[in-house]
Design a protein that fits this description.
326 residues; alpha/beta; Peroxisomal Thiolase, Chain A, domain 1; 2 domains; 5-stranded mixed β-sheet; binds acetyl coenzyme *A
Length: 326
């Protein structure tokens, strides 16, 4: 049997740190409001680097960490909601710049759940024996789609990229994955593509392309769906939540983790949280957190981990993983 094992992780975040006080000079907000409502203190913001630039650096770091050369990759899966272009796929730009000449490359659009969708697809290719070495990279320049005059959203997000290298192995790495969706026709979390305007239209569509969000609805959805995803990913595996060392959640809001831990009656410390320094980096948040945990030496061979997330689409997902690195 082929299992997908994580053999390397990498991160890249822009250098520019924007703290809550700096945002309070742009919009009517305060460090106190942002910290108490979300847990965020600062975030990284691109001063010119695009999504493929961040992705490339995170990918190089992950490959180096894995001890793998780019030519050995069979596939590059990149998740983003902020691609450089409609086409080519951002994954293809990374493939060329890495020199991963033997890799197929494509993007996944599942907003903040993109990393989990990417892992799910990569795991399926490896289990089916159709690929051996896959790079899953999640990269977001959220600052491109944020309305910097909207205090409801501009305080929440940050830019960054995280990557993992997966390798086919006889050892159990990814044990189980789940993904799901519920089309958001209500428009609770939307970032529009360029409006359709052509010479044949009678009334050109107007409006902006910024990200808009109904925070309360997303909060309710997220806390419900995280609980479901956690139960579903453990279901049928024979593994109990008590055996899981860390849950690595999509880093959206610290209050969500408190709520979910309370409802499911486990210690909130089981959630690994680093959003105070990076904000919500959408699909990049889980691999950024995972890389940090690995570099801090928090993970040992045999540890059980769950990655869980939710986001625009609406989408959600979870992965139950046995860590195989020493
Ligand atoms: N500073 C000060 N006041 C603010 C700010 C701000 N940055 N933002 C909103 N407010 C005000 C609102 O205008 C409102 O004022 P009003 O009562 O006069 O109308 C008041 O604060 C309360 O606003 P709420 O929306 O009720 O605040 P809430 O406690 O719900 O917190 C938050 C808002 C943090 C957005 C929360 O709802 C949340 O975290 N939701 C989930 C968001 C999320 O996870 N999004 C990402 C998921 S998907 C993805 O990652 C792409």
């Amino acid at each position: 049997m082929n299992y997908a094992n994580i053999i390397g992780t990498g991160t890249y975040v822009p250098e520019k740190i924007v703290d809550n006080h700096m945002l309070s000079e742009l919009v009517e907000t305060s460090d106190e409001w942002i910290r108490t409502r979300t847990g965020i203190k600062e975030r990284r913001i691109s001063t010119g680097e695009n999504t493929s630039d961040l992705a490339l650096k995170a990918s190089e770091a992950a490959l180096e960490n894995a001890g793998m050369s780019p030519e050995d990759l069979d596939m590059i899966i990149l998740s983003t909601l902020t691609p450089d272009y409609f086409t080519p796929a951002t994954a293809c730009l990374v493939q060329r710049r890495l020199g991963a000449e033997n890799a197929a490359a494509f993007d996944i659009s599942a907003a903040c759940s993109g990393f989990l969708y990417g892992l799910d697809v990569a795991d399926s290719f490896i289990r089916a024996g159709k690929a051996k070495n896959i790079l899953v990279v999640s990269s977001e320049v959220m600052s491109k789609v944020i309305d910097w005059e909207d205090r409801n959203t501009c305080v929440l997000f940050g830019d960054g990229a995280g990557a993992v290298v997966l390798k086919a192995s006889a050892e159990h790495g990814i044990i189980n994955t789940v993904t799901g969706s519920k089309g958001d026709i209500e428009g609770n979390l939307v970032s529009k593509s360029r409006n359709v305007v052509n010479p044949f239209m009678e009334i050109p569509e107007t409006g902006d392309n910024y990200l808009s969000m109904n925070g309360k609805e997303i909060f309710k959805f997220a806390t419900r769906i995280m609980r479901k995803a956690l139960k579903d990913v453990l279901g049928g595996t024979g593994i109990e939540l008590s055996e899981v060392k860390y849950i690595v959640p999509h880093q959206a809001n610290d209050r969500m983790f408190e709520y979910v831990a309370g409802k499911m009656k486990f210690d909130k410390e089981k959630f690994y949280v680093n959003l105070e320094r990076f904000g919500n980096t959408s699909s990049a948040s889980i691999p950024i957190a995972l890389d940090e945990m690995a570099k801090k030496g928090l993970l040992s061979k045999g540890d059980k981990l769950i990655f869980v997330g939710f986001g625009g689409g609406l989408t959600w997902g979870a992965a139950l993983v046995e860590w195989q690195l020493d």
